[in-house]
Amino acid sequence: MTTPGPLATATRAATATPSPSATAVVIPPQPMSGADGIKDAVASRSDAIGDVVNTLDKLAVQVGATRFSVWDLFVVLAVLALLISAAWAASRLSSRIISRASSLDLTQRLLTEKMVSLFIWGLAILVGIDVLGIDLTALTVFSGAFGLAIGFGLQKTFGNLIAGIILLMDKSIKPGDVIAIADQGGQYTFGQIRRIGIRAVSLTTRDQKEYLIPNENLMINQVENWSYSSRNVRIQVPVVIPYAADIERAEELMLEAARSVKRVLVAPPPTVWLDSFGENGVAFVIHVWITDPEEGVGNVRSDVLKTLWRLMRENGIRVPYPQRDVNLRDTEAMRDLIKALRGKADGYDQA
Length: 351
Description:
- By secondary structure, this protein is α+β, with helices and mostly antiparallel strands.
- 50% of the residues lie in helices and 18% in strands.
- It is elongated, with a radius of gyration of 41 Å.
- It starts with 5 loop residues before the first helix and ends with a helix.
- It is found in: Cell membrane.
């Protein structure tokens, strides 16, 4: 048997694999790379500032393999404040620039403004992650939880955001439109759209009440848009005249009253329809057209009726009062009641 030489023995010893039990792997604490780089840059400028930075960096907490210090917290807050201020200023500046774009209409400007704002804030988030040196692979669990939160808790919020963008893209509802929307009780809310926000639409009524309607409601509910394709709106004014009145003359007075109102359009012209024969008189409906529904419709109806009231009085036509015919049956009880009433009346006359 041949004994290996000294050279072979040394070679085997050098290439031998160490035992796993004899090897210890030590993972040093990993600070935030962004904060660490900023610390080195600041410390290189001045020794005094470097001492302060090092002191803040020594006040740290170890969480798993990550080390958080007071300096890291200071850097995170400073970067967040700087990025939020820069993104807010850039968003305001872009809004001013887009508002001056005369080639775009109001809806296109709003849509462009929102898209640019989302891009600026998204870019600010990415820049902040890059500056702070955050490892995106460490956010895998957080992103899953965030997606779950969107699916449940933030579903309405993101639904309203997408609905607002769709409303601006198809131009079905835009600022300045006059709409009427029904609530869950079936009552209609009438007003003018002031603005379309990320979450809700601002609707202002004639009494200056401002309703914030979620964008999603305007997508799934029936909405009456009075100025979608045309701003002309027809208003109906019901009128009742007595049966003894001259119908032709009454129609002339109704048309004259409708034409006297300034907001009523000449074309299409006002018209009068005989609606029905009611209990108290003949029912008519005056149809008038206006082109400014945001100024209200009740005041137009009121002006027409007030003018018609004056014209009817001047021409001897009265507004009919409610009339009822009472028929009494001839029964024993009715005759006894009449005799009793007559007896009381005679007693009062003798007294």
